[in-house]
Amino acid sequence: DAGVIQSPRHEVTEMGQEVTLRCKLISGHNSLFWYRQTMMRGLELLIYFNNNVPIDDSGMPEDRFSAKMPNASFSTLKIQPSEPRDSAVYFCASRAGQGLRGEQFFGPGTRLTVL
Amino acid sequence: GESVGLHLPTLSVQEGDNSIINCAYSNSASDYFIWYKQESGKGPQFIIDIRSNMDKRQGQRVTVLLNKTVKHLSLQIAATQPGDSAVYFCAEKDGGGADGLTFGKGTHLIIQP
Asked: Is any Cβ of chain A less than 8 angstroms from the Cβ of B52?
């Protein structure tokens, strides 16, 4: 298994542009988590899905951020319009179980720079 | 608000010595704790976990200790190796039902030859 796949690995864009980050879950996993990592705030949970349904999006910074799961194995995180303060490393993680069962497996991350 | 934090941002140890990384948490409703290791340019990697009904759990060269009385978590790494150099995060899960993890800021473990 290739593990969690994220693309692109690096993204440099200008303020005001739309950014789309992509994540492919591990086959058979049914939960998907999006995290953001910065030096100042560390790793923060943005949103997570169970069985394609968004469960908790309280970590999404504002309406400029949106996430979807068009199918059971794929998710996108979109930022529109992007701002310099959105610069961070964005991770997705997938998990097989719910509750206390199942480890979260992290992807390699997408490093986003907004100029 | 509730938070998970680490005592030391950087820990330097000699190769072969034991390492102890500490973590304080403040959410008394947390019922599950995990240690992750993050190497440069990579995503966090699961090391070991512990549920709140336990106070100790051992893995291969790693031990996690949980003291619920003082809300303290520690990760012990035996016979530290160069490959152990990384940032270590503790994370906790609220027992209220939400599945997301709250991460601490991280401790950078540096192995001296």
From this structure: no
